[in-house]
Design a protein that fits this description.
alpha/beta; Rossmann fold; L-fucose Isomerase, Chain A, domain 3; 2 domains; 8-stranded mixed beta sheet; 22 strands
Length: about 475
C-alpha cells in the first residue's frame, strides 16, 4: 500500500515544484497542513484524509509496447510518500495496479471502504471506462495523466459538463499531483466542520438554511446566544486576558491611535471567549452578528479576535455572513490562506476596485507567514471599540470570491496597486486593486445569481494569490458552478 512505501530524495525539479515554503507549496500555492497552527493553539487535531490510489493500465501501444507498468508504479509510490510528508494530513491507501478493464475497476471501486477520496494514476491507453467506475462511487476523484499515457483524457470533459465530482491533471509536472490531492481534502474537511453562529444569520436564503448547508456541504451550524458569549467572556482569567492582549496586540502594533489599553484588553478577552466556545463545540469557524447585535461595552468588537483566528488558519467572520464564512472555509482548506471580508467600492477612473473593512488577517499568506504591519484603531462606523488597519502588500495578485446560494462561486482576480492613506472615509483596512475591466465588473456585479439585502449583495472575500484555475477544480469537486464577475 502507498502509505507504507519508503520515500526517496526528490529531484531538484520536483522539489522546486512541490516543496513547502512558509507552509505553502511553492508552485500552485496550495497549503501543506492548513490546520497545524490551530492545532498547536489548542484546537483538536482532525484525522488525516484517506485517499485510495489506483494505477490504471498495464501497457500496450501507448506509451510503448515494452512499457514496464510495475516500474512506473514504484516511481509513483515513492513520489506519493513524499506527498504524504509534504501535505502532512493525507494518508494514501490501496495502490492496486489494474488493467483498463471496467470489470476489474468495478471490483476495486466496490471495496474502497472508508476511503474519503480517490486518486487515479493513468499509466497506459484505454477508453476511460475504468475511470467511470470510480466516479460512480460518488467520492471525490482526481485523475493524474501524464503525456503519452494515452488519450483517455478526452472523455473527462463530458463528465465535467455533467457536474461529476472529478478533476483532471493532464500534466508532465508531478507537482500537479500534490495540488490535486490538496483539493481532494476540501469536501472531506467541510463534512467535518462546525460553524458557531452568534445572533441571526445573514446572507443568501440557502446559506441561512442550516439543513440545506448540511445536505450540500456537510457543514454543521450551531447557534449560540449572546448571553452565553457574555458569560464565557466574563469568566476568562483576567491575567490570561492581559497576557493575550500584550503578546499578540499591544507589543506588536505599529501604532495605537484611539483605543485605550482597556479596550484592547477587552477585545483580547473576546478572542479567548470565542476560542473556548469553538473548542468546546468542536468548531473551526465562528460568525457573529456584531454590528448592533452584541453589547460592545461588555465584549468589545470581535475584530481583533477574528483577525487572530484567521491568522491561525481558522475562520472568524463578521456580520453573521454565512456565505462569506463558507467561502473562507473552502479556500482555507484548499490553499491555506485566510480571507479578508470586504465592502468593495468602484473607482472606474482608475480601473480599480477598492476593498475596505474593519479588519483583515495579519498573515494573509497563511499561518506561517510573517505578520503584516498593523495599526489599532477604533471601529470607524461608530468610533468605538478596537479594529485594525492592516498594511497589505502592494503588487500582490489577489482573488476576490464569494460562494452564494450554496451553488455558485462568484470570482474575479486583480492586483493590489496601493494602500491608500486613510482619509477619514470608510473602514480602517483598505486596498486599491487593479482589475481587468472595472466598468464591466460593475455592470456584472453579482453575476446574475446574487440578490438580497445590502450586506449579501456587497460582501466579497479577498485572498492572496491568483486562485482562478485551482478554484475551478475546487468548484468541480464541490458541485458548484463558477461565475466570473470581472
Amino acid at each position: 500500500m502507498c502509505h507504507s512505501c519508503s520515500g526517496g530524495e526528490l529531484s531538484r525539479r520536483e522539489f522546486l515544484g512541490t516543496a513547502a515554503a512558509g507552509g505553502i507549496l511553492l508552485m500552485g500555492g496550495l497549503s501543506a497542513q492548513p490546520l497545524r497552527a490551530a492545532e498547536e493553539a489548542g484546537w483538536p487535531k482532525l484525522p488525516p484524509v484517506k485517499v485510495h490510489v489506483v494505477y490504471l493500465g498495464k501497457g500496450g501501444a501507448w506509451p510503448k509496447p515494452e512499457f514496464n507498468a510495475s516500474a512506473e508504479v514504484a516511481g509513483f509510490q515513492k513520489y506519493l510518500a513524499g506527498v504524504e510528508e509534504r501535505l502532512g494530513d493525507v494518508k494514501f491507501v490501496g495502490g492496486q495496479l489494474i488493467t483498463n478493464s471496467p470489470a476489474e475497476a468495478a471490483k476495486v471501486a466496490a471495496k474502497l471502504g472508508d476511503a474519503d477520496a480517490v486518486l487515479l494514476v493513468h499509466l497506459s491507453f484505454g477508453d476511460a471506462s475504468a475511470f467511470a467506475e470510480f466516479i460512480k462511487t460518488g467520492k471525490p476523484v482526481a485523475i493524474y495523466s501524464q503525456p503519452f499515457s494515452g488519450h483517455d483524457w478526452m472523455y473527462v470533459a463530458e463528465w465535467l459538463r455533467q457536474g461529476q465530482r472529478v478533476i483532471l491533471a493532464a500534466s508532465s509536472d508531478r507537482g500537479d499531483i500534490d495540488r490535486a490531492v490538496a483539493l481532494l481534502r476540501v469536501p472531506v474537511y467541510m463534512r467535518r466542520t462546525k460553524i458557531l453562529l452568534v445572533g441571526p444569520a445573514n446572507g443568501t436564503e440557502a446559506a441561512c438554511n442550516f439543513q440545506r448547508v448540511k445536505e450540500k456541504l456537510g457543514v454543521e451550524v450551531i447557534s449560540i446566544d449572546v448571553p452565553t458569549v457574555v458569560k464565557v467572556h466574563a469568566a476568562i482569567d483576567p491575567k490570561e486576558v492581559e497576557a493575550e492582549a500584550e503578546s499578540y496586540w499591544l507589543s506588536q502594533a505599529k501604532k495605537i491611535v484611539e483605543p485605550t489599553r482597556q479596550e484592547i484588553v477587552k477585545s483580547a478577552g473576546m478572542y479567548l471567549a470565542m476560542k473556548k466556545l469553538m473548542i468546546d463545540h468542536g468548531a473551526r469557524a465562528i460568525t457573529i452578528k456584531c454590528l448592533g447585535g452584541i453589547p460592545i461595552d461588555k465584549l468589545g468588537y470581535p475584530c481583533l479576535g477574528f483577525s487572530k483566528l484567521l491568522d491561525l488558519g481558522l475562520v472568524g467572520a463578521c456580520e453573521a455572513d454565512m456565505d462569506s464564512t463558507l467561502t473562507m472555509l473552502m479556500f482555507g482548506y484548499a490553499f491555506g490562506v485566510p480571507g479578508f471580508i470586504t465592502d468593495p467600492l468602484f473607482d472606474t477612473a482608475r480601473n480599480a476596485v477598492i476593498h475596505a473593512h474593519c479588519l483583515a488577517p495579519t498573515k494573509m499568506n497563511g499561518p506561517t507567514d510573517h505578520r503584516a504591519p498593523f495599526v489599532i484603531r477604533t471601529h470607524r462606523d461608530d468610533n468605538r471599540g478596537a479594529s485594525l488597519a492592516v498594511e497589505l502588500k502592494v503588487g500582490q495578485p489577489i482573488t476576490c470570491a464569494k460562494l452564494v446560494n450554496l451553488d455558485s462561486l462568484l470570482i474575479s482576480t486583480g492586483k493590489i496597486t496601493e494602500i491608500p492613506d486613510f482619509d477619514d472615509r470608510g473602514c480602517r483596512t483598505q486596498i486599491i486593486t487593479e482589475v481587468a475591466d472595472a466598468r464591466s465588473m460593475l455592470r456584472n456585479w453579482g453575476g446574475g445569481v446574487l440578490s438580497g439585502d445590502m450586506m449579501t449583495l456587497l460582501h466579497r472575500v479577498v485572498f492572496y494569490g491568483d486562485r482562478l484555475n485551482a478554484a475551478r477544480d475546487l468548484a468541480q469537486l464541490m458541485g458548484i458552478k463558477v461565475v466570473m464577475e470581472g
